[in-house]
Input
Amino acid sequence: MSSIHKKVFLTGATGFLASHVLELLVARGYNVKVSVRSQPKADYILAKYSGKPVEAVIVPDIQEEHAFDAALQGDKDITAVLHTASPFFAAKTDPFKELLDPAIKGTTNVLKAIKQYAPQVSQVVITSSYAAISNLDKQKDPTFVHDESTWSSVTWEQATTDLAYSYRGSKKFAEKAFWDFIEQEKPNFTGTTVNPPLIYGPLLQKVDSIDKINTSSKVVYDILHNKEAEDPLTYSEALGLWVDVRDVALAHVVPLEKPAEAAGRRLFTTPGYYSAQDILDIANKNFPELKGKIPVGSPGTGQRNVDKYTKFENSKTNAFLGIKYITLEKSIVDTIKTLLEIDREQGVTF
Ligand code: NAP
Output
């Protein structure tokens, strides 16, 4: 595929998802400028991509006003921006400082900097989330269909007063700010959002210790490390939508290669539902060395509740991407391989 873009600016390049986006951009021959939070992180990326057209700038905190000005000022080659940087964890005390401000102000800061200092940018892709799509009241309504046009029901009041809703709110209101900016400011760029549910797959990012792995990889880690539940059917109770990180990376790059078609789209990337039981079945089948060390649950029951959940429809996204999704088995096997690798590097035995 070919692209019109001379250089792509990618924010938050040390993250789980962005590491794959960067890998794919480099593999497809793009010139890339990344933003990271510190000099050691920049050094790490530059060493990893030594000899490749990758440069790095430091943006210590995306929520600071003018955070992106210096990164974009004077660089007339940047014609596309992929904004992935945003916190993904459960807020502990302060929903504004921990989640809402970096998500929302982080988004508006990059948009304002583009408009003011990089008017040559013609495309912006923002990593949003299924959290901005999913209607909380409809999770267990099998007559309800979530699609690219659905918006989360989370209110500003919920997001700011109940920490359980703050992450969802951060993604919904950051995405709203993005579309509002395009409508009101009429910048030179078109917009696309990528709205993945929980993302699994191999970890490419530098991990200093296993307790610092990204939130979605930690879900797999915790399922494997939990003690066997008393009721083996527990593992098939909670279902969620999922997608592999390599497919989400692709969903950030395809828009650069189909700019006219990408404009205005929300890309709802998922192949379907999974449960903890599905993850345990895959782990027990593919990693005999973990036998007896991880829960077994109730094999084969992973999808037994799927009919009780909301339906989803993302054929427009799939047709645009031309995607054949990575299977849950491949995704989880590759996730576990890298988790075991990190354990080994750190001298941790399962
Ligand atoms: P991650 O590994 O924690 O990456 C988050 C990135 O954002 C990191 O590069 C982080 O920098 C950067 N960041 C966070 N707050 C920042 C701040 N205040 N200033 C500067 N940089 C900041 O998580 P991820 O899973 O890759 O998430 C990436 C994006 O995907 C986020 O927008 C997230 O909402 C979205 N998403 C993720 C999932 C999922 O299941 N993983 C699902 C849907 C959407 P450091 O590395 O320096 O901390």
